[in-house]
## 1
Amino acid sequence: MSEKRGKEKLAGYLAEAHATELALARTLQAHIAMTPGGSYRRVLERHLSETRDHAQRVERRAKQLGYGRSLPELGIGKAQTIFGQVLALSKAPLDILRGDSGADKLVRNARDECASEAM
């Protein structure tokens, strides 16, 4: 693989990671909004803070490597970010409605957060 192709792949991976972190942040915001106060909510709030920090660190690293300055890379990253946020926002109403009880909703939300984090 050429060095140019490798750098293009890295830029794509960083843009994808950034978009994924931003989408997870939106999902966590929605889950926090429906979670009663207490220790679990504090854990979610800490996770949201860490997720936002990850997004900023990925973006900062991409800039250090010189990515994010070219229009194609910016366009791809923005498109992925927008797609991820639309997906998270469209999922939020389903998160609110699903399940029979508040506890069931929280468990399902936690499962989704774990799956997103694993991505």
Note: Helices lie at 3-33, 39-64, 71-97, 102-118.
## 2
Amino acid sequence: MANAINWFEIPVVDIDRAQKFYSNVFSIQMQRMDFGPVKMATFPMDSGGVSGSLCQGDWYKPSSEGVIIYLNGGE
């Protein structure tokens, strides 16, 4: 059975600072991708696992409401 969650996005104000923080905390390397005005740094993913990214852009506003979570819709 697939994971209920397949992707998450953590809104950030300063992508460089956030990438450095999460990379150090989890001892990982994050891949950087920019899509026009949206900047992302992705967490590594094992085959079949859940992954996500840090996201900076007009659409992404850090808040006490937390992260954006994407659920699997079916098999």
Note: Strands lie at 5-11, 31-35, 38-42, 51-56, 68-71.
## 3
Amino acid sequence: MTIIITGKNGYVAQRLNTFLPDSETVSVKGLKKEQFTFLESKEIVIHAAALVHKNEKDQTEDAYFEINTNLSYELALRAKQVGVKQFIFLSTMAIYGDEEGQITKYTKTNPITWYGKSKLAAEEKILKLQDEYFKVAIVRPPMIYGPSCPGNYAMLRKVSRKSPVFPAVDNKRSMLFIGNLCELIYQIIQYQDFGIFHPQDPQYIKTSSMVKEIAKIHKRSVYFSKLAGKLLKLIIGNTKVFRKVFGDLYYAKGLSAYRDNSYQKYNLEQAIAITERTK
């Protein structure tokens, strides 16, 4: 089984390449469809390359749709033309917007960022290519974390290792450890599955619980203040920053169910231990 993973310099692509046998990574940045020669003789394509939301302020809307939508579709179309059997597209939870609360199978997509809109547009176009010979799997992960990961986890790690106090806010979020994502992708390939997948860790994550686990690994004591949590919510509770760190946003358990859920190999404590002890 031969696997090509796009996004050579990306965090997810690099981890998948390490995890999956017979795989290799490529960069598709700046390539035209006639340059997709690396697809030939491949059975599986995992498209992890994307223009991500953290760069949105420095990009244009056209750039997001050109890379995340048009390039993704052209890649999938060419993959189908050369006989690739399965196309796995890494999408995002952002297609549901930033609404708080639980996401169920009845929740409508409502992206509000260029990143989310361009990813949803790509999903819709790529799914139309599916037939009995070309299977399409769409994966919509929540926030991904793991060893050396970028993003919000790095910020929480810094706070956990330096601050003696952290706001205690009783929130609930879906997150996904990179090891669990890799296992899910592996199983989708092994079972030749297709459709839309909403993976998450086996338990919902409370921000303060994650900070507590990180601090514990480094033998640090952090005081979790309910008063600080109440004050923070009172002062900035309506801001995007507060919702992103302390808000509720999670997939219903049934939505993330996949076979026997054996892809959820690691719980929070195990995932944090691996993340903090792996350089």
Note: The chain has a mean pLDDT of 93.
